[in-house]
Design brief:
- Chain A: Belongs to the binding-protein-dependent transport system permease family.
- Chain A: This is NitT/TauT family transport system permease protein.
- Chain A: It is found in: Cell membrane.
- Chain A: One of its GO terms (biological process) is transmembrane transport.
- The complex is a heterodimer of chains A (303) and B (277).
- The longest helix of chain A has 36 residues.
- Chain A has 2 domains: 52 residues; 200 residues, MetI-like fold, CATH 1.10.3720.10.
- Chain A is mainly alpha-helical.
- Chain A starts with a helix and ends in a 5-residue tail after the last helix.
- In chain A, 75% of the residues lie in helices and 0% in strands.
- Chain B has 277 residues and is α/β, with parallel strands linked by helices.
- Chain B folds into 2 domains: 189 residues, P-loop containing nucleotide triphosphate hydrolases (Rossmann fold); 67 residues, no CATH class.
- Chain B contains 9 helices and 9 strands.
- In chain B, the strands form 2 sheets. Chain B has a 6-stranded mixed β-sheet, sandwiched between helices. Chain B has a 3-stranded antiparallel β-sheet with strand order 2-1-4.
- In chain B, a hairpin with a 2-residue loop joins strand 1 and strand 2.
- In chain B, helix 4 crosses helix 5 and helix 4 runs parallel beside helix 6.
- Classes of the chains: A mainly alpha (303), B alpha/beta (277).
- Chains A and B meet through helix 1, helix 10 and helix 11 of A and strand 5 and helix 4 of B.
- The structure holds adenosine-5'-triphosphate and magnesium ion (MG).
- Adenosine-5'-triphosphate (ATP) binds next to strand 1, strand 2 and helix 2 of chain B.
- The site of magnesium ion has 4 residues of chain B, from helix 2.
């Protein structure tokens, strides 16, 4: 009996396979809208070009032209895809023209900032939950910190840090930290306070110390909350890293690609960088989600 | 010392000259709520001697849980005095002198059954080998051997409650406080656990304070039954069960002595109810 009972029943998360068709439908719809948008937005320029050559274009050549401009207002999906292919697969990843190279630069400061932000968020939450006075004195500042627009302080932080000879990855990581510690703090405070009264009473009957109650009840109880807020935090970290690359004229990173793209009107390059950034964000959130599921199953809480 | 109501004085003496483990004197507890004060306990006098098995019985809301929580130092009385093992409930709690079984199982979902039972032992700093022995022994006692590595959600409600009993027993306390521990179990399992509990009690000389809604359960288990009534929560009768032998089997429930005691408890509960209307 115990042998058959020993294996934890693995129940598949519902809807994973079932979600594929609707997701595909949405993607196809979005691509269709994108093509239509490219046609509408690029049409005036294309019409001008035809007019200069005194040609009366038919609809087909008009469409073909709007979807293959060198500097379109809105590049068509296949142009972006081609640019992505060219700058990832067809470039050595050490090349300055490789998106993988730029993506890695941004990713590394994202990860450093995210790690520091998560640690900071957890520490702040532990402090706020355990020291009564901090709740009133610290929490308002934590909330206020997020009301300052990041675009306003990112350049200042980067410039100030550059002035004291801190350059490269660290200033960007600071911005990532700044954006990611907040969701983690809020989620963790909620998580550390999540144990039921009954579970706390139980600890009291054992005369557990505050430290034991923390390790054996509050911390494990907060794990699901931690991962939920880390998903928000990791996406915010990426945004922070990209934003930190914009104002300083950084030469590498996805932010730099966006910036140089806009200097030279390389809209295809801009859009390729944007798509790369969102794919990166999706990948990061997915990875955090996978670790979440793994940890929760390891802890035996998965149903 | 005892200034309780007319009949109280004689009844409360039934601790039988034994050393008192719990000494409650004119205890009251009033909850301040948004809808005004709730008199959960009023003027309780009770003395429980070492080795006694005392049941608290009464209608829902009469303060049974509250009384147990006061003994366990989970609730502070607003009047009167209480001593546990001769000291304050707080000192008794800090000396880890009781095991508490809650109305709900209160297992931690991220711990296996074995690790849930081991939880108080980890907190008390019991060495690993000793911990494992106590976990195995007490899980066997509540018929949960073989379920060590299951998680709480993989067990039925009744099994979870048995695991929580094993957890309280693992502390090996001299005093057991049990709040309707078998309330959620089916009749057969309940009978079995009643017998087990009685055997354990007879063997180990523990003092047990046991909350129940069931008259047969109370009579079967107890040396004394405290009948309570609500609004305000107070003690209306204390029924002595020494007419029954200390060693009991389930057959005792057919004897005239048993039925007589059950009848008296029922009368006490009725009286409490009519007072209310
Ligand atoms: N924390 C609280 N705050 C306010 N009122 C409370 C609180 N706990 C209990 N009460 C009230 O005190 C009274 C006694 O409650 P208690 O839980 O002790 O009853 P009980 O006898 O255990 O009932 P049951 O048999 O349903 O478990 C009830 O009227 C209840 O509403
Ligand atoms: Mg109760």
């Amino acid at each position: 009996m115990s042998a058959s009972l020993a294996a934890p029943p693995v129940r598949r998360p519902r809807g994973r396979e079932g979600a594929f068709v609707p997701v595909l439908a949405v993607v196809l719809a979005l691509v269709a809208v994108w093509y239509a948008g490219a046609y509408v937005l690029n049409r005036p320029q294309v019409m001008d070009a035809f007019a200069r050559q005194k040609v009366e274009p038919d609809f087909e050549s008009l469409v073909a032209a709007t979807w293959s401009m060198e500097r379109p207002v809105l590049p068509a999906p296949h142009q972006v895809a081609a640019e992505l292919w060219k700058t990832t697969v067809e470039q050595r990843i050490t090349s300055k023209r490789s998106l993988v190279f730029h993506g890695w630069i941004t990713l590394s400061s994202t990860l450093v900032g995210f790690a520091i932000g998560t640690a900071l968020g957890i520490l702040l939450a532990v402090a706020v939950v355990h020291v009564k006075s901090l709740e009133k004195s610290l929490m308002p500042w934590i909330v206020a910190s997020q009301t300052i627009p990041i675009l306003a302080i990112a350049p200042m932080v980067v410039v100030v840090l550059n002035a004291v000879n801190i350059t490269g990855l660290l200033p960007k990581a600071v911005i990532s930290t700044y954006l990611s510690f907040f969701p983690v703090t809020v989620g963790m405070v909620k998580g550390l306070r999540s144990p039921e009264i009954l579970h706390l009473d139980l600890m009291r009957t054992f005369s557990a110390s505050a430290w034991q109650t923390f390790w054996k009840l509050r911390l494990p109880g907060s794990v699901p909350f931690l991962f939920t807020s880390m998903k928000v935090g990791v996406a915010a970290s990426l945004v922070g890293a990209i934003v930190a690359e914009l104002p300083t004229g950084a030469v590498s990173g996805l932010g730099a690609r966006l910036l140089s793209g806009s200097y030279y009107g390389q809209t295809v390059q801009i859009w390729a960088a944007l798509v790369a950034a969102s794919l990166l964000a999706a990948a990061l959130v997915t990875i955090v989600g996978a670790i979440d599921r793994l940890v929760v199953r390891r802890m035996g809480m998965a149903r | 010392m005892r200034v309780g109501g007319g009949t109280m004085g004689s009844m409360a003496a039934a601790a039988g000259g034994r050393e008192a483990v719990i000494e409650i004197d004119r205890l009251s507890l009033t909850y301040e709520t948004n809808d005004g004060p709730v008199h959960a306990l009023s003027d309780i006098d009770l003395s429980i001697g070492r080795g006694e098995f005392v049941s608290l019985i009464g209608p829902s809301g009469c303060g049974k849980t509250t009384l147990l929580r006061v003994i366990a130092d989970l609730e502070q009385p607003t009047g009167g005095a209480i001593a546990v093992n001769g000291v304050s409930p707080r000192a008794a709690r800090e000396a880890r002198s009781y095991g508490y079984v809650f109305q709900a199982a209160a297992l931690y979902p991220w711990r296996t059954i074995a690790r849930n039972v081991a939880l108080p032992l980890e907190i008390m700093g019991v060495p690993k080998a000793e911990r494992e022995r106590r976990v195995a022994d007490n899980l066997a006692l509540v018929n949960l051997a073989g379920f060590e590595r299951k998680y709480p959600w993989q067990l039925s409600g009744g099994m979870q409650q048995r695991a929580s009993i094993a957890r309280a027993l693992a502390v090996e306390p001299d005093l057991l406080l049990m709040d309707e521990p078998f309330g959620a179990l089916d009749e057969i399992v309940r009978d079995h656990l009643n017998e087990q509990l009685l055997k354990l009690w007879a063997k180990t000389q523990k003092t047990v304070v046991f909350v129940t809604h069931s008259i047969p359960e109370a009579v079967f288990l107890s040396t004394r039954i405290v009948v309570m009534s609500p609004r305000p929560g107070r003690v209306t009768d204390i029924v002595d069960c020494s007419a029954l032998p200390r060693e009991r089997t389930l057959d005792v429930r057919e004897t005239p002595e048993f039925l007589a005691i059950a009848h008296r408890v029922r009368q006490g509960l009725r009286a409490g109810h009519s007072y209310e209307d």
